[in-house]
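Late entry, evening session. Most of the bench is empty. Finally got around to the prediction I had been postponing all week. Sequence below, unchanged from the version circulated by S.P.
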Amino acid sequence: MPKGTRAGTLTALVVAGLAAGTALAAAPAGAATKAPAPKFLSPSELPPHPSSGWVAGKATAGVPEEMRYCFGDALLAYDSRYRTFRTELDTGAEQLNVVVGDNAKAKALATRLDKEVRRCVARMDADPEIEADHKSYGTLPVEEGARVHGFATRASWGAMDIHLVSVGRDGGTVTVVQWGQMGDFTDAPVKAFKKTTTKAVDKLY
């Protein structure tokens, strides 16, 4: 979730999740063969912002705070690294690369993460203070495939956030890309985000 909207919906949910003990640390994959580390997106490959450039953080071991609420339990057993991106305004993004090392297990993880997006939105919507809606934006024909989701949240205190999330796979590696800002579905750069997702999967190896 973008840093400019952490007072909004997902921040409250993430904090609650962390308090309940869902904070993660990177765990070894246990793969027999050490593969080259998958590459991350560069700032120029993210959906263009109309009034601000993107700035990227360093690649870091573990799972970004913004993804823990939705994906924490599914990622406990895997070696993962992430990179956070931000603009000068209210838009932010994260990319998480998960090295599984086994094609079948990576496929199963990608399938689970796709389902977790929908479950996460359902959990949000079950909160009486939150209204959450999910949209599927279909699949992309890149490597072993990718799927794009969108979800919008409206909080009782007035916060409105829109997010795009994609899950893609190349062999034994899974990548998750999340983009978000204040707004609703009409503010989502779906076409540009699909291009970003394709580049993210292409760059894994």
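Two things to note before I forget:
The domain at 3-29+45-202 is CATH 3.40.1000 (Protein Transport Mog1p; Chain A).
Residues 103-126 form the longest helix (24 residues).
Will write this up properly tomorrow.
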